[in-house]
Structure formats: C-alpha cells, structure tokens
Amino acid sequence: xxxxxxxxxxxxxxxxxxxxxxxxxxxxxxxxxxxxxxxxxxxxxxxxxxxxxxxxxxxxxxxxxxxxxxxxxxxxxxxxxxxxxxxxxxxxxxxxxxxxxxxxxxxxxxxxxxxxxxxxxxxxxxxxxxxxxxxxxxxxxxxxxxxxxxxxxxxxxxxxxxxxxxxxxxxxxxxxxxxxxxxxxxxxxxxxxxxxxxxxxxxxxxxxxxxxxxxxxxxxxxxxxxxxxxxxxxxxxxxxxxxxxxxxxxxxxxxx
Length: 256
Known about the structure:
Elements: H1 2-12, H2 19-28, H3 33-46, H4 53-64, H5 68-78, E1 96-102, H6 109-122, E2 128-134, H7 146-155, E3 162-165, E4 168-170, H8 179-194, E5 206-215, E6 224-229, E7 234-240, E8 247-252
Parallel strand pairs: 1-2
Antiparallel strand pairs: 1-3, 3-4, 5-6, 5-7, 7-8
Helix pairs in contact: 2-3, 3-4, 4-5, 6-8
C-alpha cells in the first residue's frame, strides 16, 4: 500500500512535468474550495501561456459554482459552442436517425459532441432522432452502457468518434476548432436522409432508452452530453435491416 501511495505522490510531483502542471496538481489536492479557487486563479495569472488553461478554468468552475445552475451558466459563458445554427426549413419525407459513438475523455469527440448539440437545436423531433452511445475509450467512461459496445460491434467500428445516419457510417471528429466543419458535414448528410426513400423493413422496432441531458465533465472538457444511451426515461425507436443496416420508422417513442 505504501508503495502505491508513494508512486501516486511521485506522479503528482513529477519533476519532468511542466511547472504549471505541477502547480495545478497541487491545487487540485486543496480541500477548501475557496482556497483552491484562489490558487487556480493565481496559476492562470502566473502561467498565461499554459497549455492547460481550459483544464484550470474547468476546475475553477467546480471550485466556485454554488450549484449546478450556476455551474451551467459559468460553463456556457467560458466555453460557448462555436457553432452558429438556425432552424431547418427544408423538405422532409421522413425522420432521420443519428447514432453517434463518443467518450467523455476522448479529445477528437469534442467536435462531434458540439455538432450534435447544435443539430438538436436545428432539427425538430419529427426531423431527427438522436442516440449517443458512450464507450470506454480511451479510458473508462461513467456514461457508457453495455448497449454501446453491442451497437459498435454491429457497425464493426471500434474507434471513436464516429456516427451513423440511417445506418450509414461516417468517421469525423476533432477539437473545438473543427466543430463548425463537422456540423456542416453532419447537416448535409441529415438533410439528404430527410428526403431519401424510406425502405420497408419488417419486424419489430428497436427501442433505446436515452437521457436527453447528462452533466459530466470528462477529460475532453465537455460538460453537457445529449441523448445518452442506456439511461433516462426518453425512448428512441427504429427498425433496422441487420444485413444492409438501413433504417426505417425512426421516432421518439416517449410521446413527448
């Protein structure tokens, strides 16, 4: 046990880490929230070029927000979504299904997460049904569910992020700066699906429980996670051909 504690301490005070990272590691161990917030603010001032500024700002929100509502306001002010979207006013013949695969510690998942948040504002529930499967990639994710691995295996794709629109897989992702480009490509594919011919697929629909909004700040800095699969009271239903992977009859089955 002693050796484990010693290794953990050495990891926190690793002399090969940059000084701002060592200072941040020390600040995280301060129990008093006000004192921790003061130390984090000092680090921001002392190391203005720190590559970990976003991480420090997230820790300051945690140390200073009095409740979830205030934390939400502070996060939105500090980390606004770079995507500017407007309501879709084009044609629709059917409801498109967007299934995304991501992880709360996955850096390249940031652009997809932000694009999904903007897509949920752009499209109505009659236009787009969304399910986001969290996976334990690259590290264990508390939002992951067994169904996530089942669906990833179905699509024969292990990497994250990726998404499927009506069963067609697309690999895309990146950091915050790529979010607008990822969103534009996503919208183009969704809007193509909205006017596509809907196949006839026999058999019962698959129903997935989703939570419309989960608050959890992982290592990639995203606080708001939308339509998280395997939890919550909302339901997304769809029929899918196991051979072609084509999707039909996608809709929200919770009646809201």
